[in-house]
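Moderator note: this is an archived Q&A kept for reference. The question asked for a predicted structure of one protein chain; the sequence and the answer are reproduced below.
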Amino acid sequence: MLGFALPALYTLFAWWFCTGAILFLVRRPKARHGLMLLVASFFFAAALWIISATREDVSAFGAYAGFTCSIAIWGWQEMAFLMGFITGTSHEACPAGAVGGTRFVRATQSIIYHELALFATLAALFALTWHSPNQSALWTFVVLWIMRLSAKLNLFLGVRNRSEDLLPDHLRHLETFFSKKPVNPLFPVSIALSLGAAVIGWSEVIARGASTVDSMRLNFICTMLSLAILEHLLMVVPWNPSRVWSWATRARPVFLGSASMPATEPSAIELRR
């Protein structure tokens, strides 16, 4: 039982702590953001190198290293976005009266550079690890990317909890593209598909047994998927999900907040942008 629990607990801690740490750093004075992202960039480069170096490693260390490095790379992407270094071609609020395709295009323009950066990173991970036995980094990033895209679409279409209080001032225009509704038609589809994938994944984890490294690698991915599903559910419940990271957001804020992975979320805040 401990063999199943340890990777899941490690993933839970990484999700909670790393998201909170990014929220804390983003709330530091803006003059420090460039230096903080520069330091994070060294970790980003080191993570890519470690992923490349351990792609043939089929031990438990290789599984933990791949997963951890993927989280570090995703964290860099979140920092670059939330600090305003990689966003989009437009920094304007949604025009009054914009609906349908026009509103969608304007929303996409606001985050297009970030989306391209995520896709380029995903392509780099494919190039580094494809046909290699250790793909924990790749599939962790794939889950984060897919679930983040789902969260963004659901925010655009409308959910109860939009977490706009987690947006820094220089990204406040993004909340004008969020819709507030109890639920939208895409939401149950997102939940059904992700739950189906999670059930299949967890069944495979149990079938392979806790002692195998393959089970451990899949455990990381399935736990991250389960947390992303939880983040989706928190979008529609009558409770403010920002409280999960109140320890990070209470600390000397440098932007105004209104009363929302992630996630990145995960990421939890970026998973909702």
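Archived answer notes: The two ends are 36 Å apart (CA to CA).
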